[in-house]
Design brief:
By secondary structure, the protein is of the alpha/beta class. It has helices spanning about 20, 35, 40-45, 45-50, 55-65, 75-85, 100-105, 165-170, 190-200, 225-240; strands spanning about 10-15, 90-95, 110, 115-120, 125-130, 150-155, 175-180, 200-205, 220. The chain contains ten helices and nine strands. The strands form two sheets. It has a six-stranded parallel sheet, sandwiched between helices. Bound molecules: ligand BJW. Ligand BJW binds near residues 22, 30, 159, 185 and 209.
């Protein structure tokens, strides 16, 4: 791989749909991606939900059910191992709404674009966990209002969650690894540029193909995450051992 591996104190890992691809979940923008069957404006904007809540609920109900048929893959497993064994801090900032990082054993996770298994009341803002289908007719269990429930998902034009926590983590990071994301969607796509502006952390891309932001990374590895992430984690843990 040609790069000297050192031991890092604070590792921030950004993940996207590509890390869950080998588990059998579709990405958004690849051939056969989720948005070939549903146009993004039809399902992933507040306007789409206002226009046709039944369609949007169906899209997320389908993905919520599908999530129960898939398992974490070696890339998720390797990141959980890194968090458990690394001497310093590891935080995963995921754009993914699946729960495969948790199911692999990762603990320190920020779901910046929300979670498939959560719904929120648009009247009282209560958030609840559910594996079941939801519809516009269901009243909110907390305030009784209907129609009330919406997916706890960040749509275009909405503010991603925990941006302050993410910024704090990036400011402290001495290693930033971006895995399985095409670099099309902001603010996540801008994190690597932010790291370069801060100027002290090493930046690594692991993705099937060069992302939109590839030129901002110090180090890039292109290929399947299920193979490359375990290899990279192995090198990080060996560097810890020597340090
Ligand atoms: C593999 C692999 C394998 C495959 N191994 N790799 C103009 C300029 C800048 C910004 C904007 C702009 N116009 C509008 C904006 C803002 C907008 C935006 O970024 N738009 C762009 C499209 C231009 N962003 C927002 O609106 C965000 N909010 C925001 O900015 O708030 C601030 C604000 C608010 C209000 C007013 C003003 C400002 C919110 C973004 C929300 C994104 N939501 C979605 C849907 C979530 C719900 C759902 O899941 O249904 O999140 S969009 C979708 O894209 C999803 C993903 O998390 C996100 C990123 O996709 P990702 O993960 O990168 O997937 P892909 O498919 O694109 O890429 C997969 C990659 O994996 C590929 O490269 C493959 O090669 C690779 N791969 N197999 C390794 N085995």
């Amino acid at each position: 791989m040609g790069y000297m591996m050192t031991s890092y104190e604070n590792i921030v890992i950004l993940t996207g749909a590509g890390i869950s691809k080998e588990s059998g979940l579709n990405t958004f923008r690849d051939n056969g991606g989720l948005w070939e069957t549903h146009r993004v404006e039809e399902v992933a904007t507040p306007e789409a939900f206002a226009r046709d809540p039944a369609l949007v609920h169906r899209f997320y109900n389908m993905r919520r059910q599908n999530l129960q048929t898939v398992e974490p893959n070696p890339a998720h497993d390797a990141l959980a191992l890194l968090e458990a064994e690394h001497k310093g801090n590891v935080i995963i900032v995921t754009q993914n709404v699946d729960n495969l990082h948790e199911r692999a054993g990762s603990k320190n996770i920020i779901h910046m674009h929300g979670e498939l298994l959560k719904v929120r009341c648009r009247a009282c803002a209560m958030v609840m966990v559910t594996e079941n289908d939801i519809s516009d007719e269901m009243p909110c269990p907390a305030c009784g209002f209907a129609p009330a429930l919406r997916p706890h998902i960040v749509w275009f034009g909405e503010m991603p969650f925990q941006m302050d926590d993410i910024e704090e983590a990036l400011l402290k990071a001495d290693l930033f690894i971006s895995i399985g994301t095409s670099g099309n969607v902001y603010p996540a796509a801008g994190f690597v540029q932010m790291m370069r502006q801060i100027g002290r952390g090493h930046t690594v891309e692991i993705n099937m193909e060069p992302s939109e932001g590839v030129s901002y990374f110090h180090e890039v590895h292109h290929g399947p995450a299920g193979t490359l992430v375990p290899q990279y984690v192995d090198r990080l843990l060996k560097a810890d051992y020597k340090a």
